[in-house]
Amino acid sequence: MSISPLNSELRRHALAARGFMPEDEGDALYVAAVHAAQSEPNTPFVAVGSYCGRSTVWLGGAARASNTTLFAIDHHFGSEENQPGWEWHDTSLVDPRTGRMDTLPFFRSTILDAGLADSVVTMVGDSPTIARHWTTPLAFLFIDGGHGVEPATLDYQLWTPRVAQGGTLAIHDVFPDPADGGRPPYENIYLPAIESGLFEDVSATGSLRVLRRI
Ligand code: MG
After folding, report:
1. Which of 36, 39, 111, 206 has a CA 20 to 30 Å removed from the CA of 93?
2. How far is the CA of 119 from the centre of ligand 1 (A)?
3. Centre of ligand 1 from the C-alpha of residue 50, in Å
4. Given a cut of 70, is residue 54 above it in pLDDT?
């Protein structure tokens, strides 16, 4: 079944939001999520790592188009690679009161401005903690959280068992060639998923990998 792309109004909001999701990968994410909802109706989506809500607009749009709900998980204090001194730090995201990063106000504005508040549940907390208490099967799981070895490993171990049979796992920033980027999303999420025999490749767009649970 062909899937129409994200509408132009939501696209405008996605592209206006801060973040690291290229447009073509966001579009691939959207199509994968809508497709996942078609095979697993009435089953929610989870996204780990929301930052300022850029990818959330594509996924929230997919949830809305599919009459389901996206649970968007982030502690909103920024990942390791977003902290001062790291490559992906944005000083304008620091809360002057605490001196700590806080992306929640930016995330909330993105979702409200895009009109997606009814389709996106904002879950503010530590991904492994939420995962340990989460039992609902997922139509679609997007992992784009902390990109270090430990957070990537925990997101793989704790979240991927929640993907329903026939459901979809999408992973961002997967770089098989070390020259292109960091290793953990590839070595600690993508490879273990494939090697587990529980997931098969569906598509690749840039650094986005889409897998299906067998
Ligand atoms: Mg990413």
Report:
1. 206
2. 21
3. 9
4. yes
